[in-house]
Design a protein that fits this description.
By secondary structure, the protein is of the alpha+beta class. The chain contains 15 helices and 16 strands. An eight-stranded mixed sheet has the order 1-5-6-11-10-9-7-8, with helices on both faces. The chain has a five-stranded mixed sheet with strand order 13-12-14-15-16, sandwiched between helices. β15 and β16 form a beta hairpin. The protein starts with 12 loop residues before the first helix and ends with a helix. The protein binds adenosine monophosphate. The site of adenosine monophosphate has 19 residues, from β6, β10, β11 and α11.
């Protein structure tokens, strides 16, 4: 028996209502804030991720699905949504539109991770990006949108965590100071995990969010990014906090928040689920990535964005027992007995659908009981039953599936009767 690959899943009809619910909330949020949809391919040139500041991180170095196609081109299944959006922005000259350009996407993302609750190898991300302005009011807009998205889903148990990690000018100095801190402590305690030993050289910022207990201890006493910001980054972070406070948005400072991709500058933020949640990791996260577009060959173009994992949101909706609207089901099921009645049933189903009544018609030669069982399983409100007698009298039996009540009506009046009900 074949199974879906490890870390991937089928979304069966019973689950689809959650997906539709989250997608619809995402789309109406973006409409409300003036963000336009953008779809990019699942496949990208692998260098989009490996030759930019996205590299040097686990997501790109260890978890990316990468392969050569039949023409020998090295491609990657996208491990995240921001770099593809920036690639599209440059490729299609969106920089010539009035800036910032506000875009959103919903699509699959692939990471070769160890599957567990809320962590999969294929997951669906909803993300939005505002490209082309450095104004911290845009950072505030994106943070507020992320918050309001969760609230619109009915989720209330979450916190916004915020930090600023500086820019090209101030971050190098901070990195050196951080390196010194860890090197000094490690030479006394010698507790740095093997991943962090590599991080110490390649990207010391990531030392701060290592989940290993002994590394976490060293992170607790580490110097804070915010204490080493240049005056421009400090002013940017300060004004962002002012905008958030004008809007009454509460947040927590998290000095260890650095995010999983190395292209972030200045603002970084994450939405953490409240206590007692069974799943791992943030519900969503984002930040500013002022240098990414320049790294991809464009002009200097500051930008800010956010992405959330749909599976994690759905897990949270279930955990918090938030009821969601069911998907619409067909209204009527047509059952028949005998071949003459079957012809009539097929014709009637065709006519009902023509006038917009969602209809399922039986097939094969099952017993009436089996046909009604099927109608019941699909939750249709009505069944229409046509047998030999009904054909002779040009009538049909209309059965209310909830009450079991049955009524004979003229065959020509089925649509009219259903519409009136
Ligand atoms: P990231 O780019 O890692 O911050 O991912 C953005 C969001 O996608 C996270 O906050 C999660 O909600 C979700 N996410 C990331 N990785 C996974 C995964 N492996 N499985 C499910 N959701 C994920």
């Amino acid at each position: 028996m074949y199974k879906a690959p490890r870390g991937t899943s089928d979304i069966l009809p019973a689950e689809q209502a959650y997906w539709k619910y989250v997608e619809e909330k995402a789309i109406s949020l973006c409409q409300l804030y003036g963000y336009q949809p953008l779809s990019t391919p699942l496949l990208e040139d692998s260098q989009l991720f490996t030759r930019t500041s996205a590299s040097g991180t686990d997501i790109v170095d260890k978890e990316m699905y990468i392969f050569k196609d039949r023409g020998g081109h090295e491609l990657a299944l996208r491990p995240e949504g921001t770099a593809p959006v920036c690639r599209a922005y440059l490729q299609h000259g969106l920089f010539s539109l009035p800036q910032p350009v506000r875009l959103y996407y919903i699509g699959a993302t692939f990471r070769y991770e160890r599957p567990q609750a809320g962590r999969y190898r294929q997951h669906q991300q909803f993300g939005f990006e505002a490209i082309g302005d450095a104004d911290s009011a845009l950072d505030a807009e994106v943070i507020v949108m992320a918050r309001n998205f969760l609230l619109s889903l009915g989720l209330i148990q979450f916190t916004i965590q915020l930090n600023s990690i500086g820019c090209k000018l101030c971050q190098p100095r901070y990195r050196e100071i951080l390196k010194k801190h860890y090197t000094a402590l490690n030479s006394i305690q010698g507790h740095l995990c093997s991943d962090c030993q590599t991080r110490l050289e390649r990207n010391p910022l990531r030392l701060l969010d290592c989940k290993n207990a002994s590394c976490q201890e060293m992170a607790d006493t580490a110097p804070k990014t915010v204490d080493f910001l240049c005056p421009e980054c400090r002013a940017h972070f300060q004004s962002l906090q002012e905008y958030l406070s004008i809007l009454g948005i509460s947040f927590q400072f998290n000095h260890r928040l650095v995010r999983g991709l190395d292209y972030y500058t200045r603002t970084v933020f994450e939405i953490q689920p409240g206590k007692g949640t069974t799943q791992q990791g943030a519900l969503g996260g984002g930040g500013r990535y002022d240098n990414l577009i320049e790294e991809l060959g464009g002009e200097f173009t500051p930008a800010v964005g956010f992405a959330a994992g749909m599976e994690r949101l759905i897990l949270k909706l279930k955990e918090e027992k938030i009821s969601i609207p069911p998907l619409p089901e067909p209204v009527v099921f047509i059952a028949y007995l005998g071949s003459e009645a079957k012809n009539e049933a097929i014709k009637l189903a065709f006519q009902l659908r023509q006038v917009g009544i969602a209809t399922i018609v039986a097939v094969g030669d099952k017993s009436l009981k089996a046909q009604l069982k099927q109608a019941d399983a699909r939750g249709t409100s009505y069944a229409i039953i046509i047998g030999k007698e009904e054909i002779e009298s040009q009538s049909a039996i209309l059965r209310d599936m909830k009450s079991g009540e049955q009524k004979i009506i003229p065959l020509a009046k089925v649509a009219e009767t259903l519409i009136s009900r």
